[in-house]
């Protein structure tokens, strides 16, 4: 039974884990202020990039500027992000009469109906939803001028096979993540991230015009830090411990716990740099960790819950135990020193600004 | 109360009446075979148009072919339509390596989540949803090569003001449509259709590339026929009579009935020709009525119900009386001679093929 679920989960691959739908109390729409905070911090960096790096020659004669937000969820953050980009582009190319087209992308199972209802009525761009996995092609060749993606690239397209294979040295029995796991488990996660990020870069290299920009923001880990010391990764460890409690309460079976692994990986700047270099189609224009305030245990739980975690856990363990699960998790976070331990150094959210090289080689 | 509802309805304008959502028993997804029948008939005409009228110069150097289906609903008909268009374009331009981008458009309140879930996994095009009213601009300038719209343009963006204004000579007391109404009522409907169709043509003239094609299919009326003799319009008359029955049962108040009018207009080829000529940006490449089989009363009811009518009636009169309403309507259709009276001459569904002129004048 469990292995069937696992297979199903692997098969559904990258179509599985959107943010919480609708606009109810646990929705992403109402619970994305933490993510918004990060976006405010990088706004200035995006403005600068557009002002300094973007050349008018990226536009074809049609004077159309196309923007894609990949992993946009249901709003409202995505609307702020694209408006900022548009404002900066207008400022840069003020003498031109540019039309803007914005593509909002997320998994097919994302709640696009809510996204569309929330579209600002005062918008000055043509808006569309482009459903599908950003690990593959989504757009025509050389059709985009700016790609944005925040809080999305740390989601893996699948759980690495090895970590749920009982006969593999990377079998991750009793855990749901790699934080305190064997090196083989960490390596399996890292390899899956590399595969996914390479596929992402390859698709975007085809879709972006030469000179086009790509701004990425993703939860990461400082260079040379073991995952067990990363606050983000430690939070996932507490999710695993909450589930372990619940096996003792017989709300979750041990087999279920053993076969579940969280498809999330926090990369380091070093790892990203190596993968971008290997792809070869982008120049790295800016790359740095971004410091975030430490949220309370409650806020932290609400935002993780709305931001994709409820969907992935409830698909596997059932929605009826989600309140119990997140209550336990919130208590563990409050009792732990994780949030107090957050520093500028270890709380790495990574900002990466890439430019599509002109050569097609 | 009623006039407030009416105002609300007018204000919501063209965002109000999508097909039935989801894939339940009354959904458009499961009940659109009548519409599919019409699309099969025009498939050949579209194939011919692409083969004979489409020139390779419509493509820019990027070799991208962009298609929009306006008023696409939730599928699956729209997928068949766009695949047919793509197959015909591939056949015509076989020596070229073209990428296809398809935009599925409907009102913001359309169920795009269902549409996206039903997208064929074997598709060979990039697919997006573009929400909004097709009576305004939806796409960048000169960005589309083929526009398709079927069973959508007969929906008016609003109920004409005059027909619900008690002091107007066009006040349509006791009726919900113009079939047996005073000339002033018919004129008010006709004027609203003209305004809407002009706005539609103006927007598409900007969005289509010169040489681009537009195929339209809409329920119409033969030239020089009074609306009271059109089978389509007579069906709406029966909907009004069903509601009148229900006022006697006190399920609907008379004031409600008086203030409601169905925002649907069946145009003639003559009317369309005049409006297209007035717009001036399109050449008429083909224009003819299409004959349809006569459905049974039951099929006819199911398809009208799923194809937008349930939404518009239930928003005004409440969803709880919809079964009663459509049961009464189906009986009236069965008792009437409308379906038996359908002939090649009077059952006009109108097919119109337009080409965007090269001059921008």
UniProtKB/TrEMBL annotation, chains A, B:
GO terms for molecular function: metal ion binding; methyltransferase activity. The keyword Lipid metabolism does not apply. The keyword Metal-binding applies. Residues 1-24 are annotated as: Disordered. Pfam families: Methyltransf_7. Keywords: Magnesium, Metal-binding. This is S-adenosylmethionine-dependent methyltransferase. It comes from Stephania yunnanensis. The lineage of its organism: Eukaryota, Viridiplantae, Streptophyta, Embryophyta, Tracheophyta.
